[in-house]
Each structure stands twice: as C-alpha cells, then as structure tokens.
C-alpha cells in the first residue's frame, strides 16, 4: 500500500479509530468492551498471587514520578509509566488474558485504564478508548496472521507492534488528539514497540515474557500519544512499506482499504485455561476423550496433531524449567489433563514443582507425541488420538476450544471467571461491586471511583 497517491495503512487506521464512538457502536460491542476491561482487570488481580509480583514492585518503584495510578489487587500506587508496566505484566503473567486480535485487551485496557485514572476521565471515555484500541489492534494483527511466517524463520511474535499501534489509538482518544496527531501517535508507538522475540515467549524467557504483550505496548503507546500531542512525528509507512511490519512477519500481509464491516468484539476469543492459547485446543480435545475411556489414559499413548507453527514453539523436549515455561509446555499441560484435570489453572504453573514431583505426571508427559500436521493452519485446530493398551483408538477433533469464537464463553462465564480471580484478593462483596460498576461503565463519572474499588485495603 506504500504507493504514491494512496493513503498509508496508518492513515486509514487513524481515520477509522476516530470514527469509533460509543454512539455509533452496536450494544453488543459496547457490552463486550466492558467485559474485556473486567476480564483484564481480573487477570491483573490474579497476577498479584505470583512470586514475581513483589519482584516487579521492586523494579518499578525505581521509576516513580508524575501522577500515580493504582495497581489493581494491591495497595501500590505507582507513577503512570511504572503502573502501565506493572499492570500489563501482572495481567499477562498467568496467560489468562484474552486472545482477541492476538491478546489485544492486555495492552489496550492497561493503557486506557491507567491513563483514564490519571486524567480523571469518565467511564464512557475509558470504554470508548479501550474499544478503539482493541479494534485497531485487531485490524493490524488480522492483516498479517493469515499469511504469517513461521517463528523459526522470523523469530518474532506478531503481537507487540499491533498492540502498541492500537493502544496508541486508545491513548489518543483519552488525550483528545486530532486525526493527524492520532496517526503520528500510532506511528511513534509502532516505531518504539518491542519486537516480541519468540525465544523469550516460547523458549527460555526468564521472568521477562509478561512485559512483552501488555506492559511494553501500553507504556510506549501512552508516551507516543503524549509525544504526538507535543509535535513529534512518526514513520507513516511503518506498516506497509517494503521494509515494514507486514512484509517482515508475513508473506502476504496487507490492510484492506475498505472500512471494517465486522467488529472483533462481536466474536471475542477469551481464555478459560491459564496457559498459552496454542495449547487450549489440545487440552480440550484430550479432556473430551476421557469419558470414552474405561481406564482413563492409563497404559496407552497419546498423539496430538497441531499446526506446524504451533508445534514449533509449544512442543518441548524436556520438562518445564520455570512457571513461565510450564504455561507454554504442551506435553506438561496435557499430562495435567491426562491425570484428571479439566482446565489448566494458575496453580498448575505457580506450583509447577509439586506437579513435576508426581511420577504420574512425568510418566504421562512421556506418553505424549506431538505431530506437526500441515493440514492444520490455525491454533484452534487439533486432533487428539489415544491408542489404548489393547490397540483400540479414540479420536477427538473439536471445532475450537472453550472460549474461542467457535465455542465462546457466555457473559455469565466471563463474570464468573472475574469473580473467581478477584475474590481471593478483594473479597466476594468487593469483587461483585466491581462487576456492577463495569456493567454500568458508561454511567461512571470518574474512573478514579473504579480504581478505588480495586485496592484491597481501601
């Protein structure tokens, strides 16, 4: 699209972002936008239970300054950029945040929530900003995902740049930027975005990985919006030039010139399992096999077919070496299910050592074979084949995992997920109060009222 006489992809996206207003949005999209905020806050609160949470506070308390924002589920109040990084990190660490537009909510809700609090914005402004960000992120992500290059070729996961561009559109709304400033904010954010190394996410990432999908995009997006407001300009063909993002991560990436006809939030992808989304379909397929097996998974072998790009990154040759690795370890998660689990829960990674001390888990991992199946091209596709000791085979190939667009969670299930994550930290009554506020978010006069409810001691 970098052709003389045609608008850049960023120009088209900026114009589309400016047209996304609550008055023009369908009711179901507004409702799903509020549920994205609720679901993402729940993930942030749940992340405070991890050992890394205190470490993170020590890191980010070094970067104080400027107006402060709360970190949901804690009594911490950090400077804006420190809060953006902390909230994005905690909301991503358990791998429970949604998969709309390649994890769009974690970066966009993180950016919009903290900035709206600092600005004293209304609930309606927060909602409109978050929806803008999620929809723009999804458009960028959708431009490359159908023709994505394999991670072994590029070494880059296509999440950080779309989320940074989208979150800049969200921040631009809260700072009342005009269309030109919005376009430059998105370009600056994309230029400053991290490249999301595949090794950090799927390999030996240490404790860094949760910074990449939400924390870094949110922080660079908010800074980019302030920079654009103060006159800084960005690379307008960052996405669509021959050197741009589309050509870097895909073999045929492009952005349709036509206005979006379908809202991403009308077909949300949300997570039920606390692990990489690439693992959800195999987990559900194996769970669906269990009722067919008289002796469970004892004595047999399990073969799981997944798309080749999925096998590249979540099929592991050795047991998980860290809680983060456990969330991206297909054989480990399947062993949990083979031993009776129905869902992958936060404790399966937080207390990974206890599970790996169980010989049955280790033996089950050894009976799993992962097949890179070229007939499969999406992570919601898989086929599980269990061969029992007597030679009989049992096959399960679901259309999509629970929470996917093929098998979506209901609104009540999303609310129940939030309450289950928030109740241990906030208490049942406070968690339900947050649900009520988010249900009527458009009526909230000031987001600081919501922020106060997210502090346990308040």
Automatic annotation (TrEMBL):
Domain MmgE/PrpD C-terminal: 273-436
Alphabetical list of InterPro entries matching this protein: MmgE/PrpD_sf (IPR036148), MmgE/PrpD_sf_1 (IPR042183), MmgE/PrpD_sf_2 (IPR042188), MmgE_PrpD (IPR005656), MmgE_PrpD_C (IPR045337), MmgE_PrpD_N (IPR045336)
GO molecular function, one term: lyase activity
Positions of the MmgE/PrpD N-terminal domain: 13-252
Similarity-based family: Belongs to the PrpD family.
PANTHER family registered for this protein in UniProt: 2-METHYLCITRATE DEHYDRATASE, 2-METHYLCITRATE DEHYDRATASE-RELATED
Protein name as it appears in the record: MmgE/PrpD family protein
Lineage, uppermost ranks: Bacteria, Pseudomonadati, Pseudomonadota, Betaproteobacteria, Burkholderiales
């Amino acid at each position: 699209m970098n052709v003389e006489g045609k608008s850049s992809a960023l120009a088209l996206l900026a114009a589309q972002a400016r047209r996304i207003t609550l008055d023009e949005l369908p009711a179901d999209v507004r409702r799903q936008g509020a549920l994205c905020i609720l679901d993402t806050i729940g993930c942030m609160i749940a992340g405070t239970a991890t050992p890394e949470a205190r470490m993170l506070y020590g890191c980010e308390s070094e970067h104080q300054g400027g107006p402060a924002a709360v970190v949901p589920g804690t009594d911490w109040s950090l400077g804006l950029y420190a809060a953006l990084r902390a909230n994005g990190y905690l909301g991503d660490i358990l791998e429970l945040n949604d998969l709309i537009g390649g994890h769009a909510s974690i970066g966009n809700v993180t950016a919009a929530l903290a900035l709206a609090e600092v600005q004293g914005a209304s609930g309606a402004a927060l909602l409109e900003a978050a929806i803008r960000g999620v929809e723009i992120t999804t458009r960028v992500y959708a431009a490359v995902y159908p023709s994505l290059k394999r991670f072994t070729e590029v070494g880059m996961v296509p999440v950080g740049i779309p989320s940074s561009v989208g979150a800049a559109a969200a921040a631009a709304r809260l700072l009342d930027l005009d269309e030109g400033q919005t376009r430059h904010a998105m370009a600056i954010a994309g230029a400053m975005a991290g490249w999301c190394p595949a090794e950090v996410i799927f390999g030996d990432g240490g404790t860094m990985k949760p910074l990449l999908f939400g924390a870094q995009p949110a922080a660079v997006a908010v800074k980019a919006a302030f920079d654009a407001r103060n006159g800084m300009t960005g690379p307008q063909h960052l996405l669509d030039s021959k050197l741009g993002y589309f050509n870097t991560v895909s073999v045929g990436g492009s952005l349709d010139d036509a206005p979006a006809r379908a809202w991403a939030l009308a077909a949300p992808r949300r997570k039920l399992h606390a692990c990489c989304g690439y693992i959800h379909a195999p987990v559900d397929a194996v769970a669906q096999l269990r009722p067919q097996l008289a002796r469970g998974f004892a004595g047999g072998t399990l073969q799981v077919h997944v798309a080749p790009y999925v096998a590249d990154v979540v099929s592991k040759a050795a047991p998980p070496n860290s809680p983060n690795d456990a969330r991206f370890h297909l054989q480990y998660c399947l062993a949990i299910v083979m031993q009776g689990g129905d869902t992958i829960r936060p404790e399966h990674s937080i207390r990974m050592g206890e599970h790996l001390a169980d010989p049955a888990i280790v033996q089950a991992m050894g009976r799993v074979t992962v097949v890179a199946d070229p007939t499969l091209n999406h992570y919601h596709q898989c086929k599980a084949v269990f061969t029992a000791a007597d030679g009989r085979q049992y096959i399960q190939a679901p259309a999509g995992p629970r929470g996917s667009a093929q098998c979506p969670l209901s609104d009540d299930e999303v609310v129940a997920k939030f309450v289950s994550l928030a109740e241990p930290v906030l208490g049942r009554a406070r968690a339900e109060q947050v649900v009520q506020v988010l249900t009527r978010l458009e009526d909230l006069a000031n987001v600081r009222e919501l922020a106060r409810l997210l502090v346990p001691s308040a």
